[in-house]
Amino acid sequence: MKFLHRGLSALILTLLFQSQLFAEYLYKDEVVNRPSFTNEVETLGAELYSKTGIALRLVMLKRVPEGMDVVAYERELLTTFKEPTILLTFVEFSSDIDIQVNDTSLYKYFNRKQVLSPVASAVPAFVMAVVYAKSWEQFNSLRKDYGGSILPLIAGKSKPEQVVGKYAASMFNGYLDIAHQVSMSKGVKLENDPGDTNQETLFYVKLFFYGFVIYGIVLYIKRVIYRRRHKNEQE
Question: DSSP states of 165-180 as a string?
């Protein structure tokens, strides 16, 4: 019996140790729960911390504790960390996504507004500015508000069985964006960050997409002009 008791105790301690080990940067995950996702976050987070001294932690919650909002939850959690910490938080039921830090000087290493922007690129940002701006100042503000690495992805439609995967991809994309900006600001290279290579690929994808859209618009305008001219000739 003593042998069994010791064996059970050792197993419990091992499991607790492993849970703590793999919860360093993916600090809490109630949503995705996939080993591959955990490993990606932990690997990138560990490298970022070892090279910059900044801990980037991701929290994925079903809901925040009763009586709290996401910001209050983040600020309370941040008090438990001694090292400089950036906290990226996702709450599934309320669809909240936020970023907080335990030292405001950390904001100089990344662009919080850009990461959390609901717009991915410059063209839709310009269109939104034209449609919604009520002043020149607001127009300038809206047209510059783009580059979001989370919300444009998480807002996309998906089948029920794909929702968790969408959450994982969206939040890791935001996590990667922050890590890349911090490393660039610190002048270090992360081996686990595709960085500018990934951004360049995205640029060409967007360039192709918007080029195709513009080409379609030009063809449409030509067709309308042709029809009007043909109609006038018949009259």
Answer: HHHHHHHHHHHHHHHH
CA pair distance 231, 235, nearest whole angstrom:
6
pLDDT tens for 115-150 read 999 988 888 888 878 888 888 888 888 888 888 999
Interval 2-27 mean pLDDT: 50
Distance CA 38, CA 46 (A): 12
CA distances from 71 to 31, 74, 81, 91, 135 (A): 19, 5, 16, 11, 30
Residue predicted with more confidence, 103 or 207 = 103
120 is written with which tokens?
């991915």
Among 84, 124, 75, smallest CA distance to 107 is for: 84
Residue 98 has pLDDT above 90, yes or no: yes
Distance CA 1, CA 94 (A): 49
